[in-house]
Amino acid sequence: QVQLVESGGGLVQPGGSLRLSCAASGSIFSNYAMNWYRQALGKQRELVASITSGGRTNYADSVKGRFTISRDNAKNTVYLQMNSLKPEDTAVYYCYAVLVVGGTVAEDYWGQGTQVTVSS
């Protein structure tokens, strides 16, 4: 059983930076792939960044070069460093953890979401 608690959202001006955190508890963190999704008002939820249990990362084209996903297994925490923020980045950001065993999703968990607003 895993619980995800997100923090770090807020209001920032275009060109500014924010760091989102997602702290996991209740199970073995290091075996999970970790992901950040976002959902803007009136739009579907989209994958922003992911990091596997082995440390491989992937980014949406819209954020590549500006965002960085990382994990600290000792702290059971995944981060999303967001630089050069644009108004188009405004959305609710969600942490998603997934455990794959034998090629099958065994467990998955969503965080509650944290609001990011980029505006001048």
Sum this structure up briefly.
The protein is mainly β and 120 residues long. Helices cover 0% and strands 56% of the residues.
3D structure, described in words:
The relative contact order is 0.31. The protein contains no helices and 11 strands. The N and C termini lie far apart (41 Å). The model has no long low-confidence stretch (mean pLDDT 94). Helices cover 0% and strands 56% of the residues. The chain is elongated, with a radius of gyration of 14 Å. Strands 2, 4, 5, 6, 9, 10 and 11 form a 7-stranded mixed sheet that branches. The protein has strands spanning 3-7, 10-12, 18-25, 33-39, 46-51, 57-59, 67-72, 77-82, 91-101, 104-110, 114-118. With 120 residues, it is mainly β.
Number of strands: 11
Mean pLDDT reading: 94
Q: Label the overall shape.
A: elongated
Extract low-pLDDT stretches. Answer: none
- The total of helices stands at 0
Give the SSE order as H and E letters: EEEEEEEEEEE
Work out the oligomeric state of the chains in this entry: single chain
Task: Determine the strand fraction and express it as a percent band.
Answer: over 45%
Structural class: mainly beta
Span of the ends, CA to CA: 41 Å
What is the radius of gyration?
A: 14 Å
Helix content: under 10%
Profile the largest sheet.
Answer: 7 strands, mixed
